[in-house]
Amino acid sequence: MRVQTGSSALRPTGKYLGCRRDQQPTLNEIPGLRFRSSRLQDGYSIIEVVMAAAIIALVYGAIIQVYMQCGMKAEWTGYSLAAQAMATEQIEQARSAVWDPGNGRNEITQLNLTMPSYNITNQTWSGSVTGVLDVPYRSTNYVMASNFVTIQLLYLNGQTVPPVQVYLVQVQTVWPFFYRRGINYFTNTAATLLGPDNRLITSM
């Protein structure tokens, strides 16, 4: 009988496959049978499988790397905001100090700084203070940062008579960030100009 075509998976052409023994193909005729089964002809070679696995590995590796970079950047942003807040806090301490030349009061140069120094040439006070960054921590797992404060007296009119004075207060906050088994240091800077209070009525 002839094998009918249709939904059959094996569709040999040009050969009769009978039920009787004398109608079965011989060993010499078997290689000549051309099967049109997609399951026997289609498939992936080992090179295609390896290339597909390599592409998948590269894609997932890139996704994981981007995820880790985003997490690290978010942590760095939190540290930077905390350092900027620490610098601003130091600026606010200088702003709250009294500077009244008419009464001879100057509390700006009396901030609570470590190892304060004064340069008489450019009339600059400098010092530092150390504190803890305002980031979440547990037990002793806190991060220390240092404020380096510079206070300089400036004359806006370029002369001492009559004096038009302001103080330039600059704070540089240096903080560490742990990245790739190493410590990198970053600096946030805040600065402002402070004018005298002139609380003495006769000096106004």
Concise overview:
This protein has 204 residues and is of the alpha+beta class. The chain is 27% helix and 29% strand.
Total number of β-strand segments? 7
Strand order of the largest sheet: 3-4-5-6-7
Strand content: 25-35%
The global form is rod-shaped
What structural class do helix, strand and pairing data support?
A: alpha+beta
Mean pLDDT: 81
Rounded to the nearest angstrom, the distance between the terminal CA atoms is 123 Å
Report the C-alpha radius of gyration, rounded.
Answer: 41 Å
Low-confidence stretches: 1-9
Largest sheet, in brief, is:
5 strands, antiparallel
What's the domain count?
A: 2
Topology order in helix (H) and strand (E) letters: HHEEEEEEE
Oligomeric organization of the protein chains: single chain
Q: Which key features would you list for this structure?
A:
rod-shaped; 2 domains; five-stranded antiparallel sheet; 204 residues; alpha+beta; two-stranded antiparallel ribbon
Report on the architecture of this protein:
This protein is α+β, with helices and mostly antiparallel strands and about 200 residues long. The chain folds into 2 domains: about 10-40, no CATH class; about 50-204, no CATH class. Helices cover about 25% and strands about 30% of the residues. The protein contains 2 helices and 7 strands; from the N terminus they run H-H-E-E-E-E-E-E-E. The strands form 2 sheets. A 5-stranded antiparallel β-sheet has the order 3-4-5-6-7, covered by helices on one side. It has a two-stranded antiparallel ribbon with strand order 1-2. Strand 3 and strand 4 (about 125-130) form a beta hairpin. The chain starts with about 35 loop residues before the first helix and ends in a 10-residue tail after the last strand. The relative contact order is 0.12. Residues about 1-10 have low confidence and may be disordered.
